[in-house]
Amino acid sequence: MLLETLRKNGVLYLIEAWALGVFMVAASLVVIVVEHPALPVRAAIPSGEVRRAIIGLCMGLTAVGLIYSGWGKRSGAHLNPAVTVAQWRLNRISTLDAAFYILGQFVGGALGVWLVWFLMPDYMAHPSVNYVATVPGSAGVWVALGLEFLMSFALLTMVLALSNSRKLSPYTGYFVGLVVAVYITLEAPYSGMSINPARTVSSALSANVWTAVWIYFGGPVAGMSLAGWLYRLRYRKRHGECRTMALHLSGAQNGCRTYKVLWWTEEREGQPISHQTNS
Asked: What is the mean pLDDT of the chain?
């Protein structure tokens, strides 16, 4: 079974590694350019808020590019173990596939940060960059944990709603990019804005900075899992007692007559409209 799964879906696991690796390379380079004092941007833009907005815009655009890339569409562009766990709990992805997705995300992200450090060690190690590590801000660990939870919950709630709307689903990735940009601009001083365990570990491995790393596991996984659970609760109320809301890479149908996720915003009574997406 393991070898068959690797043969069938191995390229998707590599895509997940590639995607988070590219994201971390982009994050490292953008922060270096914007924040390193040896480069002109920091002196030209003294406002930390404006510089964060620039970083947020760049990373939001990076997320959009990855989501809508040919490879990103093939894997569903999870890029985040918390997203994969939530999708697994919704039975949208099998246990084995989820495990390899998560492994790919951790390995790819770590390699991305390591690559930039290998090529630009002095820049990455500078305190203004600090390997783009995510650490709690001056408000403390519990504030950081709460914000990581809330941001993760809100993001996946939005994704689940938009990706199952006939009119809005094609634009889900753009909304994700916008939210990422806003989060980085406004929230980064409080928790570092991770909402992604693999993103945090990727930087921590190179920086050897593990400050309160547990909040970047607990907050995002709990927040996205709760978002998925509440979405499924609403789904069941509308469409009956179904055990699954399966998409691609899923396991058995489990007897659910609505195997594919419904466009719940536009279905007609007795005539469910189904659609298969890559969310």
From this structure: 86
